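Q: I have 736 residues here and want to know how they pack in 3D. Can you give me a structure?
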Amino acid sequence: MMRQYELVERVRRYNPNTDEALLDRAYVYAMRAHGSQLRASGDPYFSHPLEVAAILTDLKLDDATIVSALLHDTIEDTSATKAEIERLFGHQIATLVEGLTKIKKLDLVSKQAKQAENLRKLLLAIADDVRVLLVKLADRLHNMRTLKWVPPEKRDRVAQETLDIYAPLAARMGMQDMREELEDLAFRQLSPEAYESITTRVSELRQFNGPVVQEIERELKDELARRGIVAEVKGREKRPFSIWGKMERKAIGFEQLSDLYGFRVLVSSVEDCYRALGVVHTKWAIVPGRFKDYISTPKPNDYRSLHTTVVGPRRQRVEMQIRTKDMEEIAEYGIAAHALYKDASGAPGEMLSHESRAYAWLRKTIENLSQGLSPEEFLEHTKLELFHDQVFCFTPKGRLIALPRKATPIDFAYAVHTDVGNTAVGCKINGTIAPLVSELKNGDEVEIITSKAQTPPGAWETIAVTGKARAAVRRATRAAVRAQYAGLGRKITERAFTRVGKPFTEDAVAKATPRLARASAEDVFAAIGRGEIKTDDVIRAVYPDWVPPRPEERAERAVSGEGWFELKRGHNLKFKIPEGSTSERLDAIPIRGINGDLPVRFAPDGGAVPGDRIVGILTPGEGITIYPIQSASLQGFEDAPERWLDVRWDVDELSDGRFPARIIVTARNEPGSLAQIAGAIGDRGGNIDGLQMHARSADFHEMVIDVEVFDLRHLNAIIADLKAREVVSQVERVNG
């Protein structure tokens, strides 16, 4: 275990002005706080925060970050408190340590929800101070290095979380070395056989090829020197997880891989980068389609480099990355290389002239992900945002938009602005009209066509690739559904006030919202539309002196004009309409069918068709269910009169819309009887949607047939035609 003076020396190598007293105090405090605690390996627990701090010294981080690493588990796993740490080490370090503390007291059912809430807390802390992320990544790296000591049932979960969240997060922050080690450690745990197979094959290939890497390094360096370019050349084999990913992505075997070797050419200036590229392409044949210029177009994580693949010595495919030494530092250490904090006291030093693009991306992502998503949605969308494979597209004005691979113009539109995505109706890709579901490619110029009348279809959520687009579509869909429920609830509320003889105004409802535990009148109406609030409660909230009628006094319910439902207890349900009244009342809710403007569905086991007298039953969370008034199923709602709605058909006579009905046909059991029955329905233009057959006896069987018809007249014509068939004994309609 590293001793106190050794830690101080590690920091002093890159920061001669380090606060030795602060580091000593933190070392002693953390060691005493963890006391006799042991890790799963049997080592003192304090060895873990000490190793985390050592990893961060390799990144040359400031004193406050090193101290936070030493203390990062104290609040969570010891009796230490934030107040005590703030008193001893200052507000800044206490805030960093608190940001690294998991949320323990969560009343959540699923482990996924708990994981998501802990991740949300971590990301929000990172948004305030990026050093939280650096400590967390170092913490995860050491945990992965010691994963073999973790109980077996937890290893896969930790490794999968590392692969899903922390390795991509390190990549997004440009910390490639840390990302690659995290990926390999997770890969070794999750797919041990594949990991062993790849490492064995790479070892065998290394022995077969001999010192090929050293030969290419030497030849490349000499060639550059002859052209007057001073360069450092580093060669290495690809990492196991990178090899596996390429095999999976391209569906090829190990033998088909031709670029297992990668080389970095480090030069002194951007001009030398392009000169070196010219030398490489002159010396060796380029592999078409494998050149990328990330210097003129940097990645969102600030990564800059030239990438090319050539057919080098021994006819080997060789990947080359050409960059300056400053670019190399950012490529290896990512956001840590920006060194935003250099003050020896641990206080933030002078900021760089511009915020890191990677950190700016992270802050924007966190802002997008924190807009009212459920824990599970937040976790899903965070994973989507962290995947690092990208395409780069442009707006017509030249703005660069970075998107994940397989992204569509829908994702592009939401990346430009949420309002652009919500109003998108079409697009042009490179000047040509294209579907919104097209897969975008590097360099595409995308123009989004918008319309203020457009709202995003819910199906876009399954098409979009980015978390921002999916979240925005989901919010817009919820808003549209909420508006539908609010419109329905407003009509229900108006009728309820009229029924009891009380004047209705939205202002009165708005003033009563505190008593209904809602923020606005719109929220109240939406809750009524969903069946979450009873209209009696709203009336009582607006008029506290109003006394609702007793249940026995509520035997009648208005449906049209002065008409009422007469709900009698017992087995029979009767419907009474006074003379001269009509169901075509102005305040009745129009029903256009399943695809109408309101959340509407038809009753199971019979449905309803235009021409039936109908009633709507409000079901919380589902909308309105339409029943024919003669349905026996309505008996089940006699004790809930507040759920009954006055509804009417609003169907054009020329409409070709079909509606569900169910009939029971009793027919002779003889060859061809089913064909005759199906023929009778088809001849009349009916559509069979479902069929069940039951044998009642050896001579007769019963068919339960779900048919789709235009209206009641159409249904009656089908029933009459069936009754005229010799094989048919009886036909009756089912009404629930």
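Q: Anything worth noting?
A: Residues 428 and 447 are 5 Å apart (CA to CA). The radius of gyration is 35 Å.
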